[in-house]
Amino acid sequence: MSSPRSRGYRRQLEAGLYATRYERASPREKEYLQVMASLAVGGRARTGQIAAAPGRGLAELSPIRDRLIRKGVVWASAPGELAFSVPGFSEYVSSRR
To answer: So which domain of life are we looking at (predicted)?
Structure first.
């Protein structure tokens, strides 16, 4: 169970850091983040699975992935794998549905 203090910190993160990162994303980037969040385990997801979920290819989604990396929202944590750059961001994105 979380304390009132931890809930307060969480609200600050959501209103500041998380919201800023999410709102800077284009509609297609937000769609990518939503798919990634739905597949993420421990804040990480396989790029092939992200591409397969909306029925698109890796090449089609590569520019979106690259923009999100440049914006600092995700990072390539391993070959073929992306991770959210901020802990807890996956849950925030999932709550935006």
So the answer is: Bacteria
The pair of three-digit structure tokens given for residue 95, joined into one six-digit string: 């709550």
CA angle (60 as vertex; 73, 39 as ends), nearest 5: 50
pLDDT digits (tens, 9 = 90+) for 9-63: 667 666 678 888 999 999 999 999 999 999 999 999 999 999 998 788 888 899 9
Number of independent structural domains in the chain: 1
Number of C-alpha atoms within 13 angstroms, CB side, residue 87?
1
CATH of the domain at 26: 1.10.10
Q: Which two tokens stand for residue 40?
A: 């993420």
Beta strand 44-46 pairing with 74-78:
unpaired
The length of the chain is 97
Structural domain containing residue 55: 4-95
d(CA 25, CA 32): 10
